[in-house]
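Suppose a colleague, Dr. K., hands you the sequence of a protein chain of 260 amino acids and asks what its three-dimensional shape might be. Before reaching for any lab equipment, you can write down a predicted structure in token form. Begin with the sequence itself:
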Amino acid sequence: MTILDRIAAVKREEVDRLKVERGLDSLRSGAASRPPVRPFLPALLRPGKLSLIAELKKASPSKGVIRNDFSVPFLAASYEKGGAQCLSVLTDREFFQGDLAYLASAKAAVKLPVLRKDFIIDPLQVYEAREADADAVLLIAAMLQPHELEDLQSLAWELGMAVLVEVHEAVELDKCLGVGVKLLGINNRNLKDFSLDLKISFDLLRICPPELPVVSESGIFTRADAEALKKAGAAAVLVGEAFMKSLDPGQAVKELMPED
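The predicted structure, expressed as tokens, is then:
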């Protein structure tokens, strides 16, 4: 069983609990009660510039605990001060020591749009994300059939959220293009074994439609990495670990991101 298989099994259990504890009507009502989203995609689209989705990530299956002093308001504010365009907040508990409450906490601390980063497999999780004040959600192509990907993406759009659809290989890219994605993520980490290779982004960027905004995710640790991805056509990068290990994440942002 791969790591992704284990994660998927846990998510199915979580969805089953969500159905019992909340149910569709309650979550739909909660989502409808929230104020309008902050524009996520427009914040990233800066022609000629590389944008940043800065991630709040306490731990990961491959690294264990990355940051012990995990103060969400401090980290979010530091990222905003450093110049990030958007935030990504890990909400998975089992594997990343995240929490859904971190979303609202981060959003209350800044004016930036916030992405819920989790393993979403069911419409209930999309409603839950909007109820928790997410402005965008992540969908992972490797976990979803094309019709599931299309349905979840459409639901998120209906609720006003942006959707970052993540791929790792060409066959997944084909799946995404078939459902009309508006924002593509290329994960340089293989979620089946958590190996990492930045070359994945460069290879897939060469075959992506030029009009499709692309976010390179994982394995970006230096300004040289970021500059190379910008040159290759990436619209944005998603970076977490490189910042989480810094005493001053905002300063780390300034040091990693290319100057405008």
